[in-house]
Amino acid sequence: MNESSEVALAFDDTELLPAIAQDTDTGDVLMLAYVTPEAVEKTLETGFAHYYSRSRDELWKKGGTSGHVQRVADVRVDCDGDTFLYRVEQEGGACHTGYESCFYRTLDSVNRDEKESTDPTDASAVTAETTVVGERVFDPDEAYE
């Protein structure tokens, strides 16, 4: 049953919302990135995933450099209007490190280095032990020359 409804999108003061990319075939979560209203509009207009780079402060098309584009089957919004789900057909790997998914490691433990900082809110003093479980599908040195 399909019904139309309107939802208020809860963009924050910086006009950003998280967007999760999910593989339409496998259901695997490929990545999480941020979007602006413009990025979502561009995604809907072109059928290719667009995101907003917080580090570069710019809109970007996924795969614009590497060729590993995401063809968007549909865009969903959660019940609170504060997260998007891009259901995509991924070409190549989704992760800039060469893995199929950005979630290619399992978390084994979290380590707090109490000597590094006396501030309990200092995230730089927190590291993690992980195990690589994902598959590397491309060489990032070749894709991002």
Describe this structure in words.
- With 145 residues, this protein is mainly β.
- Helices cover 10% and strands 36% of the residues.
- It has two helices and eight strands; from the N terminus they run E-E-H-E-E-E-E-E-E-H.
- The strands form three sheets. It has a four-stranded mixed beta sheet, with helices on one face. Strands 3-4 form a two-stranded antiparallel sheet.
- A hairpin with a 4-residue loop joins strand 3 and strand 4.
- The longest helix has 10 residues.
Summed up, what is this model?
The chain is mainly β and 145 residues long.
User: What is the ordering of alpha helices and beta strands?
Assistant: EEHEEEEEEH
How many helices? The count is 2
Strand order of the largest sheet: 2-1-6-5
Helix percent band: under 10%
The mean pLDDT is 92
Secondary structure layout plus pairing:
Blueprint: E1 17-23, E2 29-35, H1 37-46, E3 50-53, E4 58-61, E5 70-77, E6 84-90, E7 105-112, E8 126-132, H2 140-143
Parallel strand pairs: 1-6
Antiparallel strand pairs: 1-2, 3-4, 5-6, 7-8
Write out key terms for the chains shown.
145 residues, two-stranded antiparallel sheet, single chain, 36% strand
